[in-house]
Amino acid sequence: MKILVVGGGGREHALLWALRRDAPQASLFCLPGNAGTARLATNLPGRATDVPAITRLATAERFDLVVVGPEAPLALGLVDQLAAAGVPVFGPTAAAARIESSKAFAKSLMNRHGVPTATARTFTDLDAALRYIGAHEEPLLVKASGLAAGKGAIVCRTRAEARAAAALMLRDRSFGEAGHEILVEEFLEGEELSVLALTDGEHFAVLPPAQDHKRLLDGDAGPNTGGMGAYSPVSIATDRLLADVAAEVFGPTLRGLSEAGTPYRGVLYAGLMLRPDGSLAVIEFNCRFGDPEAQAILAVLPGGVLPVLRMIAEGGWMPPGHRFGDARGAAVTTVLAAEGYPEHPKLGAAIAIPADLEDDPHLHLFHAGTAADSDGTLRVAGGRVLAVTATGAGVEEAADRSREAAERIAFEGRQFRRDIGWREIARRA
After folding, report:
1. What is the pTM assigned to this prediction?
2. What is the spatial distance between Cα 148 and Cα 168, in angstroms, rounded to a whole number?
3. Which of 197, 202, 195 is nearest to 315 (CA)?
4. What is the mean pLDDT of each run of 10 residues along the chain (429 residues)?
5. CATH 3.40.50.2300 for domain 2-91
């Protein structure tokens, strides 16, 4: 079997690891990959967003499966082109991927189909946005509607901060096309939860829930990032809560997409807020595996990922009675980030990883922004550099292992949080 994973981050390394676990003899390829994926697969040159080139490659190489990792190629229609060429591909079409590529589209869909979410208004005109903000209670949220690498939502404690955020997007174009349209939302209080489901557009299987840590610094301080760590499973995600998520979020959302003529096939990520009163609300949808949630979720799954991805890619679904998605133990992922991340990451620093960490059966070092010199020297090549994922019987044990391993990996300007999983650990204490 020949499998291509499109992308070059920690999520894609984790996907390759899971696919290798399920199919040790498969021929794995990654485009463009990184220094870590090169140890599991053959890295191929190119850009993940070069849809025509990838389509030609996949057709010529006759891949049995293509798994698209990042959101950008999905939004550009890579799945549409591969499917039209007869290549089995896992991921949603461009029209279905609007659930992430257009927050305005997602909000409208949720409102039409009764999916619980924050009240919001959409704007392309700055003056209109400023008038609305002027009458909005504080705090509030300003979001870029388009793709902004996980950094397009600005929490504003005051209306003045919200006016500045709106001007940053609509007038200054600091977020590029992603900020051409914005949403001004009510601020939701509570605890965040990431719940992902694999789906053929009608049926779906919910994966072990995870919790992401978006802020750069311990104690949820500092700027928003693409994610500084995650853990799975999460004790507040009870069977009852997950049943509510299935009934109130995934079910109506998938039905709404199908009724709109854009059935959703792939993995659907629901970013949720659990309010103090026990109710839930959708913060956002993503059209792909979360990063770094995937690194933790895939590590707690016992296997069996590849057959489900392939069935969905080929237009099928799991046979009746097949169980998938139960967690074993716990996993905690600590992200090591470059100096200056998230605003201005400094690249090029040499990375030193103790050899015994590579051999530890409880550790998975998923590479994100790494590259290797011709002499094998590992270097920083992106903002998020490594995802140090550790497993254990519980979150506390996994967190200790992840943090201790992160401490031992060295490069100039290294940044990481030492409190990943702190809410869960506090609950258990």
Report:
1. 0.95
2. 14
3. 202
4. 98 98 97 98 98 98 98 97 98 97 95 95 94 92 87 89 94 89 93 97 96 96 94 96 97 97 97 94 96 97 94 93 84 98 96 96 98 96 98 98 98 98 93
5. no
